[in-house]
């Protein structure tokens, strides 16, 4: 399964099924960037919203490794909401896309695979500034 829109793409990871439990893998051949950083968000209080920013260069691949959550993405022209709820399906978010994560289920864990290390100057944290940024491109 691959579904894409401007700036985002849903990618199914390989799923190796076994009676002892399933296994999925993330490799550079599956996502279109070199992995430079991996982190995860967990113990999210009810009603919390994460994200609320865009990146100038960084690309991310998000997976709900446990539970579910919604990812609201905006490329400056359209807004979409994608629900992530399978540990073998992820959302590629390219640079220049605003994102917010919300509606976290109890016990959910969001795994993020990133193309760059943390660089504060790469963030656009104000939505109006984001719109100005994408309109300049």
Automatic annotation (TrEMBL):
UniProt cross-references to InterPro entries, sorted A to Z:
QdtA_cupin_dom (IPR008894), RmlC-like_jellyroll (IPR014710), RmlC_Cupin_sf (IPR011051)
* Pfam families noted in UniProt: FdtA
Transmembrane parts of this sequence: none
- In what residue span(s) does the Sugar 3,4-ketoisomerase QdtA cupin domain sit? 7-134
Tell me the protein's name.
FdtA/QdtA family cupin domain-containing protein
């Amino acid at each position: 399964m691959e579904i894409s829109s401007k700036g985002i793409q849903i990618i199914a990871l390989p799923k190796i099924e076994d009676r002892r439990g399933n296994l999925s893998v993330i490799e550079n051949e599956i996502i279109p960037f070199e992995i430079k950083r991996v982190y995860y968000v967990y113990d999210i209080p009810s009603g919390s919203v994460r994200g609320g920013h865009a990146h100038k260069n960084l690309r991310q691949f998000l997976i709900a490794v446990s539970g579910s959550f919604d990812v609201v993405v905006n490329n400056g022209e359209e807004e979409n909401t994608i629900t992530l709820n399978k540990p073998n399906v992820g959302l590629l978010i390219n640079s220049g896309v605003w994102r917010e994560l919300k509606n976290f289920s109890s016990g959910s864990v969001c795994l993020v695979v990133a193309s760059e290390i943390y660089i504060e100057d790469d963030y656009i944290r104000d939505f109006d500034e984001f719109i100005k940024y994408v309109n300049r491109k």
